[in-house]
Amino acid sequence: MTQQNRIDASGYTYAHEHLHLDLSSFKNNIDCRLDQYDLICEEMKTLVSLGVHNIVEMTNRYMGRNPQFMLDLMRDSGINVIVSTGYYQSAFFPEHVAHTTARQLADEMIAEIEQGIDGTTLKAGVIGEIGSSKGVITPDEEKVFHAAAIAHLETGRPVSTHTTLSTMGFEQLKLLKKHGVDAERVVIGHCDLKDNLDNILRIIEQGAYIQFDTIGKNDYYPDEKRITMLKTLAQRGLLNRVMLSMDITRRSHLRANGGNGFAYLITTFVPMLKEAGLTQTDINLMLRDNPMLFFN
């Protein structure tokens, strides 16, 4: 497979995931090395059988990205993976970001979109996850957002962000717009980690998309509250700006290791949504139609 930067419109899409990630040295915890191929491949096969055909894989450079792992997964499980290019957030930036220009950072991203990643046939299909710190966008993060904007304007690829604990999403959008990015080409990530409805409404009002992409992470924020916010958005007719995902990042999140596993969103969370009054049309909008429009 060589065409990985477009959505397979016949199935659902998880809009923000990780399939190979290694933040173990940053966090001094082996659990943060997500790399167990056989377990992940089995979970992907299960997802495909449940109608999920696409994973937007948000592990960028310096987060432990592994393009060959993605190519193998696509071959062995049938899942379609859209990979990303960019830089995460200040705490995880490599040293060179501090003395590299936005133009140079953008050129790196553009090369991964147009030429491929690490000498493989795999090309990045999304600019992300471009992140900010809790309650602040640092100067280096601001530079990365500028670089993401340049890369977007030159390639047309959409921008997907990381907010730390649902902070600074509106400010991220303002920054990208300042650098010429149309709000409709931006999705603000992790909007579901606190009571965040006012902020979500401000972001959607500007024309951007938002993600409820930490579903199942009840230690951070309970799914019941996520559903309450989604219900409100449904009542206001705003689900055409919402995408869903789980942001699986640890070995312990995998089903075989005692976690929820990737299928939880379909097998547990979707039935909870229906019980709360959301319709199949609502669910198709968030899991199929919106990602198809945004990522293609």
Automatic annotation (TrEMBL):
Cofactor binding note: Binds 2 divalent metal cations per subunit.
Binding site for a divalent metal cation 1: 16, 18, 129, 247
Cofactor(s) needed by this chain: a divalent metal cation
Species the sequence originates in: Photorhabdus namnaonensis
GO MF annotations, alphabetized: hydrolase activity; zinc ion binding
UniProt entry tagged with the keyword Metal-binding: yes
Protein name from the UniProt record: Phosphotriesterase homology protein
Superkingdom of the source species: Bacteria
Record keywords, A-Z: Hydrolase, Metal-binding
Pfam (any one): PTE
Cited Gene3D superfamilies: Metal-dependent hydrolases (3.20.20.140)
Keyword Membrane assigned: no
UniProt family annotation: Belongs to the metallo-dependent hydrolases superfamily. Phosphotriesterase family.
Binding site for a divalent metal cation 2: 129, 162, 190
InterPro entries, per the entry: Metal_Hydrolase, Phosphotriesterase
Signal peptide (residue range): none
